[in-house]
Design goal:
about 300 residues; single chain; four-stranded antiparallel β-sheet; Aldehyde Oxidoreductase, domain 3; six-stranded parallel β-sheet; alpha/beta; 2 domains
């Protein structure tokens, strides 16, 4: 059995991840958020704040982390009032310490207060995802394993949450069900009718219907499924809920015939050992489905008028 590889990072250095967001879907998310949060305006500010009042406020980090959503925070402020000026002091993907100022906002006090909650909700959640991802990436350092997200995202916010994963140094799995074939346990159960002897032939027949650029991945949950799946020439084999010993044996059995992905029971206590088995990809649903918002606040420094 080959030893799991701990490799020279220079050999497997990742290409720079894209830290840009397309403007149209972000604007759509923000418009829907403001329609929900202020369908008829902010009656509190309209009652209490003079129309001509202006304010300067800072986005403060109350705990350390990795920033994601800086541009979304800016876009939220500017969507409410294009005259609002936003200075980003820390860029998406950069780490910060508690007490740091992340952005400064100057504009109509009413506009800043109306935009505050939507802007904060998004940058807090995105920064939490980026911070959690960075922790997983750090724990997998020195191995070939790439940390990726899953489709376990908040409906309607997937593009932001996947961007946050990239800000934390992780990579993205397929974006949607339309992007790649991923046959999971329930697919296999329906396909084979419980007869594992049919698996290879059925996968080969399915693969023959695909275009040559479509990625084909199959999830297995038992060692004996690996060879029949590999015989179909799939691109990636996902070893789901395998023990560390089974992952090591599975990587040796695949022996480069397909990319190996590990999933299931991945947390900060297990990810280093999983990465050390030699898998190529570790998918982590917890990056997006169970993070708590990172503590950040918008504090008014100066109000005038």
């Amino acid at each position: 059995m080959t030893e799991p590889a701990v490799i020279d990072q220079a050999v497997f250095r990742r290409p720079p991840l894209d830290l840009t967001l397309p403007s149209a879907p972000v604007r759509d998310i923000l418009e829907r958020a403001f329609a929900e949060d202020a369908p008829s305006g902010d009656i509190t500010s309209q009652l209490l704040i003079p129309a001509g009042a202006r304010a300067t406020a800072v986005l403060n980090a109350r705990v350390p982390g990795v920033l994601s959503g800086a541009t979304v925070f800016r876009d939220a402020m500017e969507l409410v009032d294009p005259a609002t000026q936003v200075e980003l002091l820390v860029a998406d993907g950069e780490s910060f310490d508690a007490g740091m100022h992340l952005a400064r906002v100057t504009g109509s006090a009413r506009s800043v207060l109306l935009a505050e909650r939507v802007a904060l909700n998004l940058v807090q959640r995105m920064s939490a995802i980026a911070t959690k991802t960075a922790e997983f990436v750090r724990l997998a350092e020195g191995t070939r394993a790439r940390i990726t997200d899953t489709r376990k995202t908040t409906p309607g916010l997937r593009i932001l949450e996947r961007f946050a994963v990239r800000c934390g140094g992780g990579a993205n799995h397929r974006y949607s069900l339309s992007d790649a074939v991923l046959a999971k346990d329930n697919h296999l159960a329906v396909m084979t009718g419980g007869d594992p002897a049919k698996l290879t032939a059925l996968l080969l027949a399915a693969k023959a219907q695909l275009g040559h650029t479509t990625h084909f991945e199959v999830e297995v949950d038992r060692m004996e499924q690996i060879e029949p799946v590999l015989a179909a020439g799939v691109d990636t084999i996902m070893l789901d809920n395998f023990s560390i010993e089974e992952l090591t044996a599975g990587v040796a059995l695949v022996a480069g015939r397909a990319r190996v992905e590990a999933s299931g029971n991945v947390n900060t206590g297990t990810v280093a050992a999983i990465a050390a088995t030699g898998v190529d990809v570790i998918s982590v649903g917890a990056l997006t489905h169970s993070v708590a918002a990172l503590d950040q606040g918008l504090d008014v420094e100066l109000a005038a008028g």
